[in-house]
Amino acid sequence: MRPQWGLWSARYGCADGYWQKNKYIKVYSILVLAEHKIELFELDRETRHQFINDISDVSRILNDTLSPIKINVEMQGNVVPHLHCHVKPRFETDTPGHARIFQGAGTAILPAAEFSAMRDELRERMSGNSKARC
């Protein structure tokens, strides 16, 4: 596993999922492509479709589990040149409110019991969501 990505959550079709323990962005998730590629267009059609499906599946699971008002999905890579996607559930109570989350918003660690309970529920929901590997 890649500890720099956060706490590993699950293996999807062609990506590994990780969670960040940041209470400002509750269950901030990152999906990291298993093979090393930098750009989405570098993937063959099947892998590209699977990666997008993985992102969609994680977004749906987070939505169904947490009932956010919005799921933000971001692919950047200017800091870490490896294809990955940030999946961020957004809530009316987010800090700094319903506005854009700025990079300098800060980090605060969720209490262990709260994080563990969310992790267990999400892992249970995600375990039945495995797909054929790319």
Relative strand content: 15-25%
Structural class, from secondary structure content?
alpha+beta
Helix coverage percent = 25-40%
Strand order of the largest sheet: 1-2-3-5-4
Average pLDDT reading = 83
Uncertain parts: none
CATH superfamily, please? HIT-like
CATH class: Alpha Beta
Number of self-contained structural domains: 1
Order of helices and strands: EEEHEEH
How many E-type strands? 5
The CATH architecture would be 2-Layer Sandwich
Largest sheet: 5 strands, antiparallel
Query: Could you give the distance between the termini?
Result: 18 Å
The number of helices is 2
General shape: globular
The CATH topology is HIT family, subunit A
Radius of gyration from the alpha-carbon trace, in angstroms: 14 Å
